[in-house]
Protein backbone atom coordinates (compact mmCIF):
# COMPACT_ATOMS: atom_id res chain seq x y z
CA UNK A 1 0.00 0.00 0.00
CA UNK A 2 1.56 3.34 -0.94
CA UNK A 3 1.73 6.33 1.37
CA UNK A 4 -1.00 8.44 -0.19
CA UNK A 5 -3.30 5.49 -0.50
CA UNK A 6 -2.64 4.53 3.11
CA UNK A 7 -3.46 8.05 4.17
CA UNK A 8 -6.60 8.03 2.08
CA UNK A 9 -7.82 4.98 3.87
CA UNK A 10 -7.32 6.72 7.19
CA UNK A 11 -8.76 10.01 6.04
CA UNK A 12 -11.37 10.10 8.77
CA UNK A 13 -8.63 10.23 11.37
CA UNK A 14 -6.68 13.09 9.89
CA UNK A 15 -7.12 16.66 11.12
CA UNK A 16 -6.62 18.60 7.90
CA UNK A 17 -4.46 18.10 4.87
CA UNK A 18 -3.00 21.57 5.12
CA UNK A 19 -1.81 20.69 8.57
CA UNK A 20 -0.58 17.40 7.22
CA UNK A 21 1.38 18.91 4.38
CA UNK A 22 2.85 21.63 6.60
CA UNK A 23 4.06 19.12 9.13
CA UNK A 24 4.95 16.14 7.01
CA UNK A 25 8.62 15.28 7.03
CA UNK A 26 7.99 12.55 4.49
CA UNK A 27 6.72 12.65 0.98
CA UNK A 28 3.31 11.32 1.97
CA UNK A 29 0.62 13.57 0.54
CA UNK A 30 2.82 14.65 -2.36
CA UNK A 31 3.46 13.30 -5.78
CA UNK A 32 6.24 13.64 -8.27
CA UNK A 33 6.06 14.31 -11.92
CA UNK A 34 8.42 12.43 -14.23
CA UNK A 35 10.62 15.52 -14.14
CA UNK A 36 11.07 15.10 -10.44
CA UNK A 37 9.23 18.22 -9.17
CA UNK A 38 7.20 17.77 -6.00
CA UNK A 39 3.57 18.96 -5.98
CA UNK A 40 1.27 18.95 -2.99
CA UNK A 41 -2.00 17.10 -3.32
CA UNK A 42 -4.85 19.46 -2.71
CA UNK A 43 -6.73 18.95 0.53
CA UNK A 44 -8.42 15.58 0.77
CA UNK A 45 -9.72 15.52 4.31
CA UNK A 46 -12.34 17.98 5.47
CA UNK A 47 -15.38 17.72 7.63
CA UNK A 48 -17.63 14.97 6.40
CA UNK A 49 -21.08 14.98 4.96
CA UNK A 50 -22.69 12.40 7.18
CA UNK A 51 -26.38 13.01 6.81
CA UNK A 52 -27.14 11.12 3.63
CA UNK A 53 -26.15 7.56 4.45
CA UNK A 54 -24.63 6.39 7.67
CA UNK A 55 -22.01 3.72 7.13
CA UNK A 56 -23.29 0.82 9.16
CA UNK A 57 -21.86 -2.58 9.89
CA UNK A 58 -23.20 -5.03 7.39
CA UNK A 59 -22.08 -8.34 6.03
CA UNK A 60 -23.59 -7.71 2.59
CA UNK A 61 -21.04 -8.44 -0.08
CA UNK A 62 -21.73 -7.44 -3.63
CA UNK A 63 -21.65 -10.46 -5.86
CA UNK A 64 -20.34 -10.61 -9.35
CA UNK A 65 -23.62 -12.17 -10.41
CA UNK A 66 -25.77 -9.76 -12.33
CA UNK A 67 -29.54 -9.85 -12.13
CA UNK A 68 -29.38 -11.64 -15.47
CA UNK A 69 -27.21 -14.43 -14.09
CA UNK A 70 -29.41 -14.78 -11.05
CA UNK A 71 -32.45 -14.96 -13.30
CA UNK A 72 -30.93 -17.67 -15.43
CA UNK A 73 -30.16 -19.67 -12.31
CA UNK A 74 -33.75 -19.24 -11.16
CA UNK A 75 -32.63 -17.41 -8.01
CA UNK A 76 -34.84 -14.39 -8.60
CA UNK A 77 -38.49 -14.97 -7.87
CA UNK A 78 -41.32 -13.20 -9.70
CA UNK A 79 -41.90 -10.92 -6.75
CA UNK A 80 -38.48 -9.35 -6.77
CA UNK A 81 -38.05 -8.56 -10.44
CA UNK A 82 -39.44 -5.09 -9.91
CA UNK A 83 -38.09 -2.18 -7.96
CA UNK A 84 -40.21 0.49 -6.25
CA UNK A 85 -41.13 -1.34 -3.04
CA UNK A 86 -39.85 1.53 -0.89
CA UNK A 87 -42.28 3.95 -2.49
CA UNK A 88 -45.23 1.75 -1.47
CA UNK A 89 -44.44 1.39 2.22
CA UNK A 90 -47.38 1.98 4.59
CA UNK A 91 -47.45 5.35 6.36
CA UNK A 92 -46.33 4.75 9.95
CA UNK A 93 -47.86 6.83 12.76
CA UNK A 94 -45.70 7.80 15.74
CA UNK A 95 -46.40 5.48 18.71
CA UNK A 96 -47.80 8.27 20.91
CA UNK A 97 -50.28 9.25 18.20
CA UNK A 98 -51.49 5.65 17.90
CA UNK A 99 -51.83 5.44 21.68
CA UNK A 100 -53.71 8.70 22.24
CA UNK A 101 -55.99 8.31 19.26
CA UNK A 102 -56.84 4.75 20.40
CA UNK A 103 -57.53 5.93 23.97
CA UNK A 104 -59.81 8.69 22.65
CA UNK A 105 -61.76 6.35 20.40
CA UNK A 106 -62.13 3.65 23.08
CA UNK A 107 -63.39 6.18 25.63
CA UNK A 108 -66.32 7.03 23.37
CA UNK A 109 -67.65 3.44 23.43
CA UNK A 110 -70.94 3.35 25.37
CA UNK A 111 -72.46 0.33 27.19
CA UNK A 112 -75.26 -1.64 25.51
CA UNK A 113 -78.41 0.47 25.90
CA UNK A 114 -80.72 -2.29 26.98
CA UNK A 115 -78.69 -3.05 30.14
CA UNK A 116 -80.33 -1.26 33.06
CA UNK A 117 -78.48 -2.80 36.02
CA UNK A 118 -75.74 -0.34 37.06
CA UNK A 119 -73.04 -2.95 37.81
CA UNK A 120 -73.78 -4.88 34.64
CA UNK A 121 -73.75 -1.66 32.62
CA UNK A 122 -70.36 -0.68 34.03
CA UNK A 123 -68.74 -4.04 33.39
CA UNK A 124 -70.23 -4.13 29.88
CA UNK A 125 -68.82 -0.68 29.20
CA UNK A 126 -65.42 -1.59 30.67
CA UNK A 127 -65.11 -4.80 28.66
CA UNK A 128 -66.20 -3.09 25.44
CA UNK A 129 -63.80 -0.17 25.94
CA UNK A 130 -60.85 -2.44 26.67
CA UNK A 131 -61.69 -4.58 23.66
CA UNK A 132 -61.90 -1.47 21.45
CA UNK A 133 -58.64 -0.10 22.84
CA UNK A 134 -56.87 -3.38 22.16
CA UNK A 135 -58.20 -3.49 18.57
CA UNK A 136 -57.35 0.16 17.86
CA UNK A 137 -53.79 -0.35 19.11
CA UNK A 138 -53.24 -3.63 17.29
CA UNK A 139 -54.80 -2.74 13.91
CA UNK A 140 -52.07 -0.38 12.62
CA UNK A 141 -49.37 -2.73 13.86
CA UNK A 142 -50.95 -5.57 11.87
CA UNK A 143 -50.98 -3.28 8.83
CA UNK A 144 -47.24 -2.56 9.22
CA UNK A 145 -46.27 -6.18 9.80
CA UNK A 146 -48.30 -7.34 6.78
CA UNK A 147 -47.42 -4.57 4.38
CA UNK A 148 -43.76 -3.83 4.97
CA UNK A 149 -42.19 -6.10 2.33
CA UNK A 150 -40.37 -9.25 3.33
CA UNK A 151 -36.68 -8.80 2.57
CA UNK A 152 -36.53 -11.96 0.46
CA UNK A 153 -39.17 -10.60 -1.93
CA UNK A 154 -37.31 -7.37 -2.61
CA UNK A 155 -35.41 -6.77 -5.83
CA UNK A 156 -31.72 -7.57 -5.11
CA UNK A 157 -30.82 -3.90 -5.60
CA UNK A 158 -33.34 -2.76 -3.00
CA UNK A 159 -32.32 -5.60 -0.72
CA UNK A 160 -28.71 -4.44 -0.89
CA UNK A 161 -29.74 -0.82 -0.21
CA UNK A 162 -31.71 -2.01 2.80
CA UNK A 163 -28.86 -4.08 4.21
CA UNK A 164 -26.19 -1.46 3.57
CA UNK A 165 -28.11 1.47 4.98
CA UNK A 166 -29.93 -0.18 7.90
CA UNK A 167 -27.35 -2.78 8.89
CA UNK A 168 -27.57 -6.54 9.07
CA UNK A 169 -30.91 -7.85 10.30
CA UNK A 170 -32.10 -4.50 11.69
CA UNK A 171 -35.10 -4.26 9.41
CA UNK A 172 -36.38 -7.71 10.30
CA UNK A 173 -35.64 -7.15 13.97
CA UNK A 174 -37.71 -3.95 14.15
CA UNK A 175 -40.63 -5.59 12.31
CA UNK A 176 -40.42 -8.50 14.71
CA UNK A 177 -40.52 -6.15 17.72
CA UNK A 178 -43.60 -4.46 16.27
CA UNK A 179 -45.27 -7.84 15.84
CA UNK A 180 -44.35 -8.86 19.38
CA UNK A 181 -45.89 -5.64 20.66
CA UNK A 182 -49.06 -6.36 18.66
CA UNK A 183 -49.37 -9.83 20.14
CA UNK A 184 -48.78 -8.53 23.65
CA UNK A 185 -51.42 -5.82 23.23
CA UNK A 186 -53.94 -8.42 22.08
CA UNK A 187 -53.23 -10.86 24.88
CA UNK A 188 -53.16 -8.22 27.65
CA UNK A 189 -56.21 -6.45 26.21
CA UNK A 190 -58.22 -9.68 26.06
CA UNK A 191 -57.18 -10.70 29.56
CA UNK A 192 -58.24 -7.37 31.10
CA UNK A 193 -61.48 -7.16 29.10
CA UNK A 194 -62.42 -10.61 30.35
CA UNK A 195 -61.55 -9.68 33.97
CA UNK A 196 -63.65 -6.55 33.64
CA UNK A 197 -66.58 -8.57 32.29
CA UNK A 198 -66.45 -10.70 35.45
CA UNK A 199 -66.61 -7.75 37.89
CA UNK A 200 -69.20 -8.08 40.61
CA UNK A 201 -69.78 -4.39 41.30
CA UNK A 202 -69.74 -1.05 39.52
CA UNK A 203 -66.66 -0.02 41.45
CA UNK A 204 -64.80 -3.20 40.65
CA UNK A 205 -65.65 -2.80 36.94
CA UNK A 206 -64.34 0.80 36.97
CA UNK A 207 -61.13 -0.28 38.69
CA UNK A 208 -60.54 -3.12 36.25
CA UNK A 209 -61.18 -0.84 33.30
CA UNK A 210 -58.59 1.63 34.63
CA UNK A 211 -56.11 -1.13 35.39
CA UNK A 212 -56.47 -2.56 31.87
CA UNK A 213 -55.98 0.87 30.27
CA UNK A 214 -52.95 1.58 32.44
CA UNK A 215 -51.40 -1.77 31.60
CA UNK A 216 -51.89 -1.25 27.84
CA UNK A 217 -50.52 2.30 28.09
CA UNK A 218 -47.52 1.05 30.02
CA UNK A 219 -46.75 -1.64 27.42
CA UNK A 220 -47.14 0.86 24.60
CA UNK A 221 -44.94 3.46 26.30
CA UNK A 222 -42.33 0.85 27.00
CA UNK A 223 -42.25 -1.05 23.72
CA UNK A 224 -43.75 1.49 21.32
CA UNK A 225 -40.29 2.73 20.37
CA UNK A 226 -40.18 -0.16 17.89
CA UNK A 227 -42.94 1.69 15.99
CA UNK A 228 -40.89 4.88 16.02
CA UNK A 229 -37.87 2.95 14.76
CA UNK A 230 -40.03 1.58 11.95
CA UNK A 231 -41.15 5.13 11.18
CA UNK A 232 -37.48 6.18 10.81
CA UNK A 233 -36.75 3.15 8.65
CA UNK A 234 -39.69 3.99 6.38
CA UNK A 235 -38.44 7.59 6.04
CA UNK A 236 -34.94 6.40 5.15
CA UNK A 237 -36.17 3.86 2.62
CA UNK A 238 -38.61 6.25 0.98
CA UNK A 239 -35.76 8.72 0.46
CA UNK A 240 -33.76 6.15 -1.53
CA UNK A 241 -33.28 7.06 -5.18
CA UNK A 242 -36.02 5.75 -7.40
CA UNK A 243 -34.82 3.81 -10.42
CA UNK A 244 -36.79 2.59 -13.37
CA UNK A 245 -35.37 -0.66 -14.72
CA UNK A 246 -36.77 -0.01 -18.20
CA UNK A 247 -35.17 3.42 -18.57
CA UNK A 248 -31.59 3.28 -19.88
CA UNK A 249 -29.19 4.21 -17.10
CA UNK A 250 -25.65 5.51 -17.07
CA UNK A 251 -23.62 4.82 -13.96
CA UNK A 252 -20.51 6.89 -13.20
CA UNK A 253 -17.83 4.82 -11.55
CA UNK A 254 -14.21 5.40 -10.56
CA UNK A 255 -11.88 6.01 -7.64
CA UNK A 256 -12.83 8.67 -5.05
CA UNK A 257 -12.37 12.33 -5.95
CA UNK A 258 -11.73 11.75 -9.67
CA UNK A 259 -14.54 14.08 -10.81
CA UNK A 260 -17.56 11.75 -11.16
CA UNK A 261 -20.05 14.12 -9.56
CA UNK A 262 -18.72 17.07 -11.57
CA UNK A 263 -19.51 15.10 -14.73
CA UNK A 264 -22.96 14.06 -13.44
CA UNK A 265 -23.72 17.77 -13.05
CA UNK A 266 -22.61 18.43 -16.63
CA UNK A 267 -24.44 15.47 -18.12
CA UNK A 268 -27.73 15.44 -16.23
CA UNK A 269 -30.23 17.21 -14.00
CA UNK A 270 -28.51 15.64 -10.96
CA UNK A 271 -26.87 18.15 -8.63
CA UNK A 272 -24.57 16.09 -6.41
CA UNK A 273 -22.20 17.76 -3.98
CA UNK A 274 -18.69 18.39 -5.34
CA UNK A 275 -15.71 18.74 -3.04
CA UNK A 276 -12.04 18.08 -3.14
CA UNK A 277 -11.99 15.16 -0.74
CA UNK A 278 -12.72 11.46 -1.21
CA UNK A 279 -16.17 10.04 -0.50
CA UNK A 280 -17.97 13.35 -0.95
CA UNK A 281 -20.70 11.26 -2.55
CA UNK A 282 -22.07 9.14 0.26
CA UNK A 283 -24.93 7.39 -1.44
CA UNK A 284 -26.49 6.58 -4.76
CA UNK A 285 -27.75 9.77 -6.39
CA UNK A 286 -29.93 9.93 -9.47
CA UNK A 287 -30.15 12.50 -12.20
CA UNK A 288 -31.94 12.49 -15.55
CA UNK A 289 -31.04 13.35 -19.13
CA UNK A 290 -33.67 14.23 -21.71
CA UNK A 291 -32.41 13.92 -25.29
CA UNK A 292 -34.50 13.89 -28.46
CA UNK A 293 -37.67 13.23 -26.45
CA UNK A 294 -36.00 10.29 -24.73
CA UNK A 295 -35.43 10.13 -21.01
CA UNK A 296 -32.36 8.54 -19.42
CA UNK A 297 -31.19 8.04 -15.86
CA UNK A 298 -27.75 8.92 -14.56
CA UNK A 299 -26.40 7.49 -11.31
CA UNK A 300 -23.59 9.01 -9.31
CA UNK A 301 -21.84 6.56 -7.01
CA UNK A 302 -19.32 6.63 -4.16
CA UNK A 303 -15.70 6.03 -5.22
CA UNK A 304 -13.94 2.67 -5.14
CA UNK A 305 -10.61 2.03 -3.43
CA UNK A 306 -8.05 -0.63 -4.27
CA UNK A 307 -8.88 -3.39 -1.85
CA UNK A 308 -10.73 -6.69 -1.50
CA UNK A 309 -14.50 -6.79 -1.24
CA UNK A 310 -14.38 -7.97 2.38
CA UNK A 311 -12.57 -4.74 3.34
CA UNK A 312 -14.79 -2.36 1.42
CA UNK A 313 -16.86 0.19 3.30
CA UNK A 314 -20.59 0.27 2.74
CA UNK A 315 -20.34 3.21 0.35
CA UNK A 316 -18.17 1.17 -1.98
CA UNK A 317 -20.52 -1.77 -1.54
CA UNK A 318 -23.41 0.45 -2.63
CA UNK A 319 -21.55 1.22 -5.86
CA UNK A 320 -20.96 -2.47 -6.51
CA UNK A 321 -24.60 -3.22 -5.69
CA UNK A 322 -25.71 -0.79 -8.40
CA UNK A 323 -23.38 -2.41 -10.93
CA UNK A 324 -24.35 -5.92 -9.88
CA UNK A 325 -28.10 -5.51 -9.74
CA UNK A 326 -29.13 -2.73 -12.12
CA UNK A 327 -28.88 -2.90 -15.89
CA UNK A 328 -26.62 0.13 -16.35
CA UNK A 329 -24.11 1.32 -18.90
CA UNK A 330 -20.85 2.35 -17.22
CA UNK A 331 -19.03 5.64 -17.59
CA UNK A 332 -15.70 4.92 -15.95
CA UNK A 333 -13.82 8.03 -14.79
CA UNK A 334 -10.00 8.08 -14.54
CA UNK A 335 -8.00 10.97 -13.07
CA UNK A 336 -4.41 10.78 -14.31
CA UNK A 337 -3.52 14.25 -13.00
CA UNK A 338 -2.80 13.01 -9.47
CA UNK A 339 -5.26 15.60 -8.12
CA UNK A 340 -7.60 12.95 -6.76
CA UNK A 341 -4.93 11.60 -4.39
CA UNK A 342 -4.69 8.14 -5.96
CA UNK A 343 -1.87 7.00 -8.22
CA UNK A 344 -2.48 5.89 -11.80
CA UNK A 345 -1.29 2.37 -10.98
CA UNK A 346 -3.83 2.00 -8.16
CA UNK A 347 -6.60 3.37 -10.36
CA UNK A 348 -5.52 0.97 -13.07
CA UNK A 349 -5.85 -2.08 -10.84
CA UNK A 350 -9.31 -1.04 -9.64
CA UNK A 351 -10.27 -0.38 -13.25
CA UNK A 352 -9.06 -3.76 -14.45
CA UNK A 353 -10.94 -5.55 -11.68
CA UNK A 354 -14.20 -3.71 -12.34
CA UNK A 355 -13.90 -4.07 -16.10
CA UNK A 356 -13.40 -7.81 -15.78
CA UNK A 357 -16.25 -8.17 -13.33
CA UNK A 358 -18.76 -6.17 -15.34
CA UNK A 359 -17.51 -6.86 -18.85
CA UNK A 360 -21.06 -7.55 -20.07
CA UNK A 361 -22.08 -3.97 -19.50
CA UNK A 362 -21.87 -1.21 -22.10
CA UNK A 363 -18.81 0.84 -21.26
CA UNK A 364 -17.19 4.23 -21.90
CA UNK A 365 -13.89 5.50 -20.45
CA UNK A 366 -13.25 9.13 -19.59
CA UNK A 367 -10.04 10.84 -18.51
CA UNK A 368 -11.10 13.72 -16.28
CA UNK A 369 -9.34 16.98 -15.35
CA UNK A 370 -7.46 17.09 -18.65
CA UNK A 371 -6.72 20.79 -17.95
CA UNK A 372 -4.34 19.60 -15.22
CA UNK A 373 -2.52 16.96 -17.22
CA UNK A 374 1.15 17.67 -17.65
CA UNK A 375 3.07 16.82 -20.77
CA UNK A 376 4.69 13.88 -18.98
CA UNK A 377 2.59 11.40 -17.07
CA UNK A 378 2.23 12.05 -13.35
CA UNK A 379 3.93 9.53 -11.10
CA UNK A 380 3.55 9.28 -7.34
CA UNK A 381 6.79 8.99 -5.37
CA UNK A 382 5.60 5.76 -3.81
CA UNK A 383 5.00 4.11 -7.19
CA UNK A 384 7.45 1.65 -8.61
CA UNK A 385 7.46 2.38 -12.32
CA UNK A 386 10.16 -0.20 -13.04
CA UNK A 387 7.47 -2.88 -12.98
CA UNK A 388 5.30 -1.08 -15.54
CA UNK A 389 4.36 -3.12 -18.59
CA UNK A 390 3.45 -1.52 -21.93
CA UNK A 391 -0.21 -1.40 -21.00
CA UNK A 392 0.57 0.49 -17.81
CA UNK A 393 2.89 2.93 -19.59
CA UNK A 394 0.13 3.58 -22.10
CA UNK A 395 -2.46 3.95 -19.31
CA UNK A 396 -0.38 6.57 -17.47
CA UNK A 397 -0.17 8.63 -20.66
CA UNK A 398 -3.56 8.27 -22.27
CA UNK A 399 -5.75 6.06 -20.11
CA UNK A 400 -7.48 3.03 -21.65
CA UNK A 401 -7.82 2.77 -25.43
CA UNK A 402 -10.52 5.03 -26.81
CA UNK A 403 -10.92 7.05 -23.57
CA UNK A 404 -12.32 10.56 -24.05
CA UNK A 405 -10.26 13.34 -22.46
CA UNK A 406 -12.44 15.94 -20.79
CA UNK A 407 -12.25 18.86 -18.42
CA UNK A 408 -15.20 20.49 -16.71
CA UNK A 409 -12.94 23.50 -16.04
CA UNK A 410 -11.80 24.17 -19.62
CA UNK A 411 -14.83 22.38 -21.16
CA UNK A 412 -12.50 20.33 -23.33
CA UNK A 413 -14.14 17.20 -24.73
CA UNK A 414 -17.54 17.81 -23.15
CA UNK A 415 -19.46 17.85 -26.44
CA UNK A 416 -17.74 14.69 -27.60
CA UNK A 417 -18.56 13.10 -24.24
CA UNK A 418 -22.24 14.06 -24.47
CA UNK A 419 -22.49 12.58 -27.95
CA UNK A 420 -20.80 9.33 -26.92
CA UNK A 421 -23.00 9.08 -23.83
CA UNK A 422 -26.07 9.52 -26.01
CA UNK A 423 -24.93 6.75 -28.36
CA UNK A 424 -24.22 4.50 -25.42
CA UNK A 425 -27.67 5.09 -23.96
CA UNK A 426 -29.36 4.46 -27.28
CA UNK A 427 -27.49 1.15 -27.43
CA UNK A 428 -28.74 0.52 -23.91
CA UNK A 429 -32.34 1.00 -25.11
CA UNK A 430 -31.86 -1.84 -27.61
CA UNK A 431 -30.34 -4.01 -24.95
CA UNK A 432 -33.26 -3.46 -22.59
CA UNK A 433 -35.72 -4.21 -25.41
CA UNK A 434 -33.90 -7.44 -26.26
CA UNK A 435 -33.75 -8.53 -22.64
CA UNK A 436 -37.46 -7.81 -22.18
CA UNK A 437 -38.35 -9.81 -25.26
CA UNK A 438 -36.22 -12.74 -24.04
CA UNK A 439 -37.89 -12.68 -20.61
CA UNK A 440 -41.40 -12.07 -22.00
CA UNK A 441 -41.55 -13.68 -25.47
CA UNK A 442 -45.21 -12.66 -25.84
CA UNK A 443 -43.97 -9.06 -26.26
CA UNK A 444 -42.73 -10.06 -29.70
CA UNK A 445 -46.20 -10.68 -31.00
N1 LIG B 1 -9.06 21.17 -12.50
C1 LIG B 1 -10.13 20.40 -12.54
N2 LIG B 1 -10.72 20.00 -11.41
C2 LIG B 1 -11.81 19.20 -11.49
C3 LIG B 1 -12.34 18.80 -12.74
N3 LIG B 1 -13.41 17.99 -12.49
C4 LIG B 1 -13.55 17.93 -11.16
N4 LIG B 1 -12.58 18.65 -10.55
C5 LIG B 1 -12.38 18.84 -9.12
O1 LIG B 1 -12.11 17.56 -8.53
C6 LIG B 1 -12.62 17.51 -7.20
C7 LIG B 1 -13.47 16.27 -7.04
O2 LIG B 1 -14.61 16.38 -7.87
P1 LIG B 1 -15.93 15.51 -7.61
O3 LIG B 1 -16.78 15.71 -8.82
O4 LIG B 1 -16.52 15.79 -6.28
O5 LIG B 1 -15.30 14.04 -7.60
P2 LIG B 1 -16.00 12.65 -7.25
O6 LIG B 1 -15.32 11.62 -8.07
O7 LIG B 1 -17.46 12.77 -7.38
O8 LIG B 1 -15.58 12.48 -5.72
P3 LIG B 1 -16.21 11.49 -4.60
O9 LIG B 1 -17.68 11.72 -4.57
O10 LIG B 1 -15.55 11.94 -3.36
O11 LIG B 1 -15.82 10.12 -5.02
C8 LIG B 1 -13.42 18.82 -7.02
O12 LIG B 1 -12.62 19.73 -6.31
C9 LIG B 1 -13.66 19.30 -8.42
O13 LIG B 1 -13.79 20.71 -8.51
C10 LIG B 1 -11.68 19.26 -13.93
O14 LIG B 1 -12.08 18.95 -15.06
N5 LIG B 1 -10.60 20.04 -13.77
MG1 LIG C 1 -18.93 12.43 -5.96
Please identify, by name, the CATH architecture of the largest domain.
Answer: 3-Layer(aba) Sandwich
User: How many individual β-strands?
Assistant: 9
CATH superfamily heading of the largest domain? P-loop containing nucleotide triphosphate hydrolases
Helix content: 40-55%
Overall pLDDT score: 83
Biggest β-sheet strands, sense, barrel: 6 strands, mixed
Helix run count: 14
Based on Cα principal axes, name the global outline: elongated
Number of domains: 3
CATH class category label of the largest domain: Alpha Beta
Cα-atom Rg, whole angstroms? 29 Å
Q: Which molecules other than protein and nucleic acid are bound?
A: guanosine-5'-triphosphate, magnesium ion
> Helix-strand pattern, N to C?
HHEEHHHHHHHEHEEHEHEEHEH
Strand content: 5-15%
Uncertain runs are 1-56, 75-79
Protein name: Nucleolar GTP-binding protein 1
Organism: Eucalyptus globulus
Pfam families: FeoB_N, NOG1, NOG1_N
GO molecular function: GTP binding
Give a written overview of the molecule.
It is elongated, with a radius of gyration of 29 Å. A hairpin with a 4-residue loop joins strand 1 and strand 2 (38-40). It has 445 residues and is an alpha/beta fold. The chain has a six-stranded mixed β-sheet with strand order 4-5-3-6-7-9, sandwiched between helices. The protein has a three-stranded antiparallel β-sheet with strand order 2-1-8, with no helix packed on it. The protein folds into three domains: 3-40, no CATH class; 67-78 and 244-444, 3-Layer(aba) Sandwich (Rossmann fold); 84-238, Four Helix Bundle (Hemerythrin (Met), subunit A) (Up-down Bundle), CATH 1.20.120. It starts with a helix and ends in a 6-residue tail after the last helix. The longest helix has 30 residues, at 118-147. Helix 5 (118-147) packs antiparallel against helix 7 and helix 6 (156-166) packs antiparallel against helix 11. The chain contains 14 helices and nine strands. The model is unreliable at 1-56 and 75-79 (pLDDT under 50). 47% of the residues lie in helices and 10% in strands. Guanosine-5'-triphosphate is lined by residues 256-262, 274-276, 278-281, 302-303, 368-369, 371-372, 407-409.
Amino acid sequence: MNGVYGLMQQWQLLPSSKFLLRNSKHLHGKYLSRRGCVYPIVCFCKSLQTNAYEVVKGSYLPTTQTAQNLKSKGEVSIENENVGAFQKLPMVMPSVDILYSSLRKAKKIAPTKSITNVAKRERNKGAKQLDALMKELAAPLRDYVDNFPKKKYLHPYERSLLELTLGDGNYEEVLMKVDTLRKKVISVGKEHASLCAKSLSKREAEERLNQGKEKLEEIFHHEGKAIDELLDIAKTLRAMPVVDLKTPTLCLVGAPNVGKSSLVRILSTGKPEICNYPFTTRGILMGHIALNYQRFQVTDTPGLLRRHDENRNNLEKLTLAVLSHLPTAILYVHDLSGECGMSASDQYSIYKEIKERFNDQLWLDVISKSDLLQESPVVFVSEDTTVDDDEMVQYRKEGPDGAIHVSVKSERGLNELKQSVHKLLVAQIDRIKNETSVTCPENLT
